[in-house]
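Q: Predict the assembly, please.
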Amino acid sequence: MPGLHFDMMERVDQGPRVRENVFDQAIFPKVKKLAERYNIKYDPAHPVPDDDAMADRLFEAGMEMAVDTGLWVLNTQKVVKFTQDEIWRYLDNYHSPLVFGHGKDQVVMYPRKPESSVRPLVIGGAAGSSMTEGEAYVKHMMNFALEPTVDMIANGNPQFIEGREIRPYSPLEVHGAIQEVGWIREAIRRVGRPGMPMFIAPGCAASAPPAVAVINEERGVRKGDFLYAALLTEFKSDYDRLIRAVSAIENGVHVATLLAPMIGGWAGNAEGAAICGAAETLLAAVCHSSTIVVHHPVHMSLKNGATTHRQTLWVESIVGQAFSRNTTFPIGQNVFLDARAGTYEVLWEAAANAIVAVSSGQHSGPGPSGITGGTDVDMISGIEVRMLGETSRAVTGMPRKQANELVCFCLDKYEPTLGNPPKGKRMQELYDFQRLKPKKEWLEKFETVKSELKEHGIPFRY
Amino acid sequence: MTDSETILKGLYNAVLSGDPEKAREIAKQSIDANVPPLLAIEKGLAPGIREVGEKFSRMEMFLPEMVLSAEAMDAAVKVLEPYFKGDEVAKKGKVLIGTVQGDIHDIGKNIVIALLKVNGFNVIDLGRDVPSTDFIDKAIDNDVKIIGISGLLTTGLPMMRDVIQMMTDDGVRERFKVLIGGGPTSQEYADKIGADGYGKTAYDAVTLSNRLMGFDGN
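A: Predicted assembly structure:
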């Protein structure tokens, strides 16, 4: 919405100082009362709840929390608040449907509802996953872009640039980020999708300057692409993130705001995380002038930031339903997996996330991915993206009741190893990296899981 | 129930319910009632904080409640400390912890801090985006035993190695134990850079700290 970032720029240093610990510790008592008052209840047997009234109540609880809590800005230690009217003014004037990308590769994002037969967009990629640089990185990206179910492409994280480690605040961050996005542009050109919309949080960029340096029509992030400006857990932003948002907006680039309510953290339990998720989505929309919010609930017990814990699946679903039932504002479901490429578990996790997102009225991805680094590099492949994309297509229009049964079926397959998954393999071991074809063993695992899902009721057409 | 038992129960409940005011008030009552301060801690406060830690591990309590419980414990201990007669509260040791330079994610670190505190460690929180040199300088200034380095971004990994390398260059490597944790870290990376431990989960930080300080099994 035009000018909203002007309001934000003005409000970041208005009002009294609020100490961070005071702000943090006020969250849980509030969400606890709201959960009780609005009767928001987590049911482990229903990771995909089928309760429209509860979804609507969650939306109201989220609105109340958003208006009351506001967003804490790290640099000024002040709280930015928006009124309910201001939030509704943004939501009501949100343009929908929206077109992203360029030329023949443009995609249209239509608003969705729970159980909607409207096609969800699939944002495929590997945000957070460490990858080898250079030609290998290009090959990774080509692999994702070659999947026909993928509508938009998200980046992975090169750990080195020309063999040098990237350190925060160093010039190498800027150089690395520019190279990284250039490689993605090269990858989509090579596969014949040069206008494919990109969803970018440069892996080389710990700070704002490199994230902004990648905005470039010729070789970087273009108008019609996305740049990330994530919130910090819970209800926080800072100049770094606002700089990314403002730079994107004023260059015609869409803002995607990621938020990660944590079960076990300041939000407390699953119900608290759902209320925080709903509230932070509203604040992310107005404070960062976001085109889309990427919802990434996490559970304290899972180190890799996986979104596939039973409780996080529930949070994803209920927040997705709350928004899709009450607004046209889109939510993407970040897909972070606990297991790694080459395992059955990673495929079950990807499928579960796809089913949750699509049946709950969201779009699928970005992902699948998982935080890796250090010695774990290239632990992601196109087959997980294929599972996410093909499952997303096949379950479009599926009733939530059926979706819930399928998600529980998937959980039975991977939940026993959650938190301690089997070690996976590198992409280079699973694929003919030259021809970008999965090897027989990995493809057979994919077909096995897909076949079981089909037997359990997913109407895959191919 | 005797006065003493009532006071100990009151301290236990004040910690469990995360009520610093109550904890302070009952600590004062314990002094007035001549309850030995060390007894007040060992039989009143400590069981309360242990129960908090266990409830947290079972997800029956959450971070904000654990923080309040730790504050309640601290509030009571501050009242009791002047009355120790040569007795000293056996804290397990000092841990210094921060999020690595270039990274401002800190929720995982904050959970570790709360867990360490409820498990008897003195914790110095350096906050977020901490320059590598600060980890070393502040560790020396505060005479800590353990340095914990946390990070969520892959760009933080070389910074963790830098801290250890700088410690070696400064000739102080042997003075401290270094633990790393956070999304992109791993046991393999910890081994590669010469860290003393890697915490996959927040609880691992406590287990490792206990082991490094010789409190195995606690």
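The interface with chain A takes residues 59, 62-65, 67-68, 101-105, 107, 110-111, 152-159, 183-186, 188-189, 192, 200-202 of chain B (CB under 8 Å). Residues 3-83 of chain B form a domain with the Methyltransferase, Methionine Synthase (B12-binding Domains); Chain A, domain 1 fold (CATH 1.10.1240.10).
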